[in-house]
Amino acid sequence: MQKRTLSVLAASVIAVILFSSCSKTNKQGRYIPVKAGAVFHLNGKSINEKLTWDEIRQNEAFKDMSSDSSVPAYAKVILNNPDSSGLDIKNDIEIFIVKDSAGGYAGVEGFIKDKTKFKQFLGNAHKDAKETTKDGYTYLTDMHASVAYNDDKFFVAINVPQMATMGKMPSMDRPTDSAFGGIDEIKYDRDMAGVAASLVSLKEDESLAKDDHFTELMKTTGDVHMFYNAQYLNAAGNLGAMSAMVNMDKVTNGAQATATVNFDNGKINIDLKSYGSKELTDLMKKYSAESFDKTMVKNIPSKNLAGLFAFSFKPEGLKEFLKLMNLDGLANIALAQMGFNLDDFVQANKGDLVFAVTDIKKDSSAAPTAQYLFAASIADKNAFNKLITAGKKIGGPMMGNDASNIAYNTNDKYFVLSNNKDASDTYLAGTANNSFAFLDNISGGPMGGYVNFQYIMNSMKPTDSLQMQIHDASLKLWDNMMISGGNFSDGGIKQHWEINLVDKNTNSLKQLNTYAGIMSAIEKKQKEKDEAMWRSEDVINPAFKDTSTMVPGTK
Fold first, then answer.
1. Which of 38, 45, 164, 416 counts the most CB atoms within 10 A of its CB?
2. What is the rounded distance in angstroms from the CA atom of residue 554 to the CA atom of residue 535?
3. Cα 162 vs. chain centroid, distance in angstroms?
4. Predicted pLDDT of residue 185
5. Beta-carbon neighbour count of residue 434 at 10 Å?
6. In sequence order, what E strands does 76-129 have?
7. How many Å apart are CA 119 and CA 129, to the nearest integer?
8. 38: closest CA among 92, 91, 95, 110?
């Protein structure tokens, strides 16, 4: 009997584990509308383990904020001790944006640790807000925002009416409001309490709890998660007939992107995945390339590498993408003016590209200069010659084989373009065979990238003392960045970005906090220096003094 009980218990535990791992829902998106265009999830537990509030308080920027007389007293209390706000900062926090017919709104949701403290915090922060209660929730609302909370959870809804004009085509006869467009289309009379109540009562089927891609994102271990939904946060719907003409819906419907950020010792790891519409996914699956050509990277003739990007694609896929967008005919008309068409492009290209920047120096005027090189693999040389002829038409005298201009060269394998003729010739000779140490880390997929922060900064040292302090602090922090991936897997394209720091033993979040403090202190010195300079100019050149507010009869 005892053995049977233990067997049943073991089976139950296994079943729970399997159910949890295979679950198609997530708890973080339960109260986020399915039409949210962008979502940011902060893992409070892991972030606080990697960077404590005591460490944040030592940050120079934090100290300045705490001593700033313009910061309200209640805010300073919270800055000194977040627990006094009643918020549970060691739990999940979600921030999201929703765009709708009335403009849009931003939402924030999280957990409450102490309701009494939270209520007191809100009372100090929003003294003019109206308080109401409904279905166990207390609402505090003004014309711009509303906060809803109960014993455990809070929801904040903030009106963003300017989103109504985002992405709309500009009009000469419409007044504008900043970067958003027409002020005549912005409406500020949204019922913010109603928005907050809609979040509280949101049905699970109308939330991101059952979104497959968001669920997959939440299953990945991360300090920060980001989710972007192009279908609900893009300008296609505002392009009217143009959107239909280019079949924009066939690209944006179902298009999403996710990112997971981890702050690890000595590095920041970012994993990205992008999803397309059904039609675009079919194209990505069919025309996904395997790996970029490592030999094309090894042929780069200089070891003084600032950065590079290598990419592999199937030219047929580009042609099919233009067909999907209903742009193939327009593209052929435009290309015909240059003497070739899409079929020539497909026939000419093998599909491997490399772009590199090397040998950064300062010229006689102390301005930075660099050597760049672009290389493409050739499938059919005769067809590729049509592209070169077209390039000459566009580039004019700049497309000459003169060492002082842009130089290009070809053989049966590659086309190379550079601002240095010797570099293009050496590349084609294939004699460099540089075994870059990072190459294995970025290869294996259709794309790879590398940026050498150390080399770039050491090649561009400033002369100003404060700028030199920024340079030195940056030199002690940033090492390099590597990008890899581009493979199509599990319905989307995956990428990995790795930002490496000089200190390999300290958590990157701690290092960023220290760096931010240093930058803040230098910025403060720069501001004081600028103010002193303007004061001295007022003394030396009193004619430049602003007299617009002076009382008549005074000097």
1. 416
2. 20
3. 22
4. 52
5. 13
6. 92-100, 103-111
7. 12
8. 95
Coil, strand, or helix at residue 414?
strand
CA 140 to chain centre: 33
Band (530; pLDDT cuts 50, 70, 90):
confident
pLDDT in tens, 110-140: 999 999 999 999 988 888 889 999 999 999 9
- Residue found under tokens 């921030």: 95
Helix (H, G, I), strand (E, B) or coil at 223: coil
The first and second tokens of residue 182, run together, are 């027409």
Instruction: Name the residue type at position 426.
Output: T
Q: Is the pLDDT of residue 18 over 50?
A: no
Predicted TM-score of the model (pTM): 0.86
Question: Residue 213's closest CA among 257, 250, 248, 265?
Answer: 257
φ, ψ at 487 (rounded to 5°): -75, 145
pLDDT interval class at 10 (50, 70, 90): low
Rounded CA-CA distance 84/106 in Å is 25
Given a contact cutoff of 8 angstroms between Cβ atoms, the answer to whether 126 and 135 are in contact is no
H/E stretch holding 155: strand 153-159
Could you tell me the CA-to-CA distances from 82 to 115, 206, 226, 372 in Å, in that order? Answer: 14, 33, 24, 50
pLDDT of 75: 83
* Tokens matching residue 147: 């906060």
- Report whether 380 contacts 344 (CB < 8 A): no
Alpha helical stretches, state H, 349-404 = 381-395
Beta bridge partners of 104: 99
Who wins on pLDDT, 173 or 463? 463
Q: How far is Cα 494 from Cα 286, in angstroms, rounded to an integer?
A: 16
**SS3 of 249, please?**
helix
Summarize pLDDT for 540-554 with one digit per residue, the tens: 565 555 555 554 545
CB atoms within 10 A of CB 222: 21
Two tokens at 83? 């627990």
Task: Output the CA angle 113-119-122, nearest 5 degrees.
Answer: 110
The token pair that represents 519 in the structure block: 């930058």
Dist CA 311 CA 412 (whole Å): 20
Query: 3-state DSSP call for residue 500?
Result: strand
Q: What is the C-alpha to C-alpha distance for residues 500 and 481, in angstroms, rounded to an integer?
A: 6
Give the CA angle between residues 235, 239, 244 to the nearest 5°: 110
